[in-house]
Design brief:
mainly alpha; two-stranded antiparallel sheet; about 0% strand
Length: about 170
């Protein structure tokens, strides 16, 4: 393969990374809107946002598959193993300005991924707290204080905490 076609693969890689960055940015915005919907108890909006998020996750998966295929082609054309290929390897072998573009995209995608993980953790904690609150309300309504299930991260019921009471019955 010619140098021009190897450069074309690197250009395609940059385009795919840019698309992934944009998808991560959209997921971040959705995550922030999900938090608002949870706080406002807007179930319809939350359901719509989850649908949008699912479509973006599927799109991101397709972009990642395409990026891995292009990276494998690039590695093969440069005599490298695609399994061990890192984006830093591509950046090191590209000329300017493409190396700078790839480096900036890498940094941007990593930053977006960290921000997205942070927002998702916050939303997960908020959803868990809401579920625990609803469980406590249902338990209190059924007249069985402290018998309600709380849930652990893995989704299994946690041991009941009899010290936690939703309301003071002596009031």
């Amino acid at each position: 393969m010619t140098t021009a076609s190897v450069d074309a693969l690197a250009d395609t890689l940059a385009e795919l990374l840019g698309a992934q960055r944009d998808a991560c940015n959209q997921l971040l915005e959705i995550g922030q809107r999900e938090r608002e919907a949870m706080l406002e108890r807007d179930d319809a909006r939350l359901a719509a946002l989850v649908g949008e998020q699912q479509q973006l996750n599927e799109s991101l998966g397709r972009l990642e598959d395409a990026r891995l295929a292009v990276a494998a082609d690039w590695a093969r054309e440069n005599g490298l193993s695609s399994e061990a290929l890192r984006l830093a390897d591509v950046i090191d072998r590209c000329g300017e300005p493409l190396a700078a573009t790839l480096s900036a995209l890498k940094s941007s995608v990593l930053t977006m991924a960290r921000e997205l993980a942070h927002v998702n953790r916050g939303n997960s904690l908020l959803a868990r707290a809401s579920l625990n609150h609803v469980t406590a309300l249902l338990t209190a309504r059924a007249g069985m204080p402290g018998a309600g299930a709380a849930y652990r991260r893995d989704g299994r019921a946690a041991a009941a905490d009899h010290s936690l009471r939703l309301m003071d019955r002596n009031a």
